[in-house]
Amino acid sequence: MDPRTYPTIEDAVGKTPLVALQRIGAEDNRKRGNVILGKLEGNNPAGSVKDRPALSMIRRAEERGEIKPGDTLIEATSGNTGIALAMAAAIRGYRMVLIMPEDLSIERAQTMKAFGAELLLTPKSGGMEYARDLAENMQREGKGRVLDQFANPDNPRIHYETTGPELWEQTGGRITHFVSAMGTTGTITGVSRFLKEKNPKVRIVGAQPNEGSRIPGIRKWPQEYLPKIYDPSNVDETVNVGQDDAEEMCRRLAREEGIFAGISAAGALWAALQVSAQVENATIVFVVCDRGDRYLSTGVFPA
C-alpha cells in the first residue's frame, strides 16, 4: 500500500478530547447546574496547544513563499511554542533556533533539543522581553526568519479554524463560557472570534497572574510588549490567578481527576471555578494547554 495514503504525525494535531471534571468543584456545580469541561491539548503529539499554531505558521509561510525547507527559523519562546516549533521544523525540514530565558524548566529545553532545535538561553532578569528583542536583532542581522507568534495572524487563525469549531461541536453548541490562560493570546483570540460568531452571548474569560506571581504560560505583558495579535474586545473579563493557587490546583488535577497538566492549565481551571461560583446552568470550558511532565523539575509536584 502506498505510504502516502496513511496519516502523518501532522494529522495527529488537533481533534483533542473534551472531558468533564468529576470531583473538583463537583458539589457546587451540581447545586448550580454547571459543568466544567477540560480541552486536553496535551494530547497533541508535541504535548501542548502550541502544536496547532506552530504548524500553521510554518505551513502558511511556505504557501506564501516566505520560507522553504532548509531555511533557518528563529523564535523567542517560554517553552511550549518552542517545543511545538522544534517538532514542526523537524517534520518539514528546517533548522530551528529557539531563544528562551535560562530559568525555564529543564524538561522543556531537553525536549526541544531532542527534536533537533538549537537553544540560546538569555538572562533570567531580562525575561521574555529580552528574548523577543534578541530574536528580532538576529533576524535583522540575516541569521534567520522570525515567525513571531506574538504578531503572526496565522497563530489565532488556526484556533479560529480548528479549536473553536471543535469546542462548538463537542458541546453541541451549549458552551456558555470559555476560559483560557493568557500568554501569547493566540488561543483566546482565535477561539473567541469563532465562538462569538456562533453565539455572541458566549463569555470569554482570560486568566492572568497576580502581581508578583510567576506562572509558566500565563503573562501580563508591559504595554510595549503586548502581543499584536491580541484584541481586548475578544475578552469579556479577566481573572487574576495567584501562583500558589495555580500550583495547588495543578496537584489537585492530577490527584483528584487523573489529569496530569501544567501550571497554566491549572490556573485556567482556578479561574473557571471562580466563574462557576457566580453563574448557573453553565457549560464552562477551560484549556488544558499542556502536560505536567514538563514541570517535574520545578518542584510543583511532590518528589
Automatic annotation (TrEMBL):
Positions carrying N6-(pyridoxal phosphate)lysine = 50
What InterPro entries does the record tag this protein with? Answer: Cys_synth, Cys_Synth/Cystath_Beta-Synth, CysM, P-phosphate_BS, TrpB-like_PALP, TrpB-like_PALP_sf
Q: Which GO terms describe its biological process?
A: cysteine biosynthetic process from serine
Keywords per UniProt: Amino-acid biosynthesis, Cysteine biosynthesis, Pyridoxal phosphate, Transferase
* Residues that bind pyridoxal 5'-phosphate: 80, 183-187, 264
Q: Which reaction does it catalyse?
A: O-acetyl-L-serine + hydrogen sulfide = L-cysteine + acetate
Query: Which prosthetic group or cofactor does it need?
Result: pyridoxal 5'-phosphate
Q: Has keyword Amino-acid biosynthesis?
A: yes
UniProt key word Phosphoprotein: no
Any one Pfam family match given in the protein's UniProt record, by short name: PALP
Q: In which pathway does it act?
A: Amino-acid biosynthesis; L-cysteine biosynthesis; L-cysteine from L-serine: step 2/2
State its Enzyme Commission number(s): 2.5.1.47
All copies of domain Tryptophan synthase beta chain-like PALP, residue ranges:
9-290
Tell me one GO molecular function of this protein.
cysteine synthase activity
Concerning PANTHER family, the annotation shows: CYSTATHIONINE BETA-SYNTHASE (PTHR10314)
Please report which protein family the annotation says this sequence is part of: Belongs to the cysteine synthase/cystathionine beta-synthase family.
Matching NCBIfam families, A to Z? cysKM, cysM, PRK11761.1
**Name recorded for this polypeptide:** Cysteine synthase
Origin organism is Ramlibacter humi
Task: Report which gene this protein is encoded by.
Answer: cysM
